[in-house]
Specification:
By secondary structure, the protein is α/β, with parallel strands linked by helices. Helices cover 31% and strands 22% of the residues. The protein is built from five helices and eight strands, in the order E-H-E-H-E-H-E-E-H-E-E-E-H. The chain has helices at 11-27, 43-52, 66-72, 100-112, 160-165; strands at residues 2-6, 34-38, 58-61, 80-84, 90-95, 125-129, 141-144, 157-159. The strands form two sheets. A five-stranded mixed sheet has the order 3-2-1-4-5, covered by helices on one side. Strand 4 and strand 5 (90-95) form a beta hairpin. Helix 1 packs parallel to helix 4. The longest helix is centred in the first third of the chain and has 17 residues, at 11-27. The two termini are 17 Å apart. Residues 119-124 have low confidence and may be disordered.
Length: 171
């Protein structure tokens, strides 16, 4: 998982986004998932930007949801990009502009170790949602592939706070 915190006004973010688009296309079929979290943009800013930048990965609106940023922070500037292995280990954290080759070297290392293809994907996000877009959801989240049977534990939706609660083992 590559978790990228960014904003539409951020110049270095705009440089990195095409790399993430390329990585999602190249390594997505091997198990990599890029997730972009826009830290302070409103929906009307995000929608055209995502389209113009051809962002082919999940983009979440982080405005007003500092809990997700706090889980990976403190963030003194952006972009901040966190590379997380399949077993939940934080492999690398980058603050500021990072060159494409460094990201790709780290992704290739995970791929060579089998980390990208180690698990079968049984759920994937069909799209991200903004706060209020789904009845009863007062925060952004991810709509997942529907479960065979909805339950309290798996209703096919992950809210931003549920994502933030997925505590990763960084040791």
């Amino acid at each position: 998982l590559v978790l990228d915190f960014w904003a539409t006004w951020c110049g270095p973010c705009k440089v990195e986004i095409p790399h993430f688009v390329e990585f999602q296309k190249t390594y997505g079929p091997k198990g990599l998932q890029i997730v972009g979290v826009s830290i302070d943009d409103k929906r009307e800013q995000l929608e055209p930007y995502v389209k113009d930048m051809h962002m082919n990965y999940v983009v979440l609106q982080g405005l007003g949801h500092d809990d997700l940023q706090d889980a990976y922070g403190p963030m003194l500037g952006i972009p901040v990009t966190v590379l997380i292995s399949r077993d939940g280990k934080i492999c690398a954290t980058h603050s500021g502009l990072t060159d494409r080759e460094e990201f790709e070297r780290e992704i290739k290392a995970l791929n060579a170790s089998g980390q990208l293809a180690q698990y079968q994907v049984i759920h994937f996000s069909t799209h991200g949602t903004l706060a209020g877009e789904i009845s009863g959801a007062n925060e952004p989240g991810l709509v997942m592939t529907p479960p065979r049977e909805a339950s309290d534990e798996d209703d096919g939706y992950l809210s931003a706070s549920e994502i933030a609660a997925l505590k990763l083992d960084a040791n």
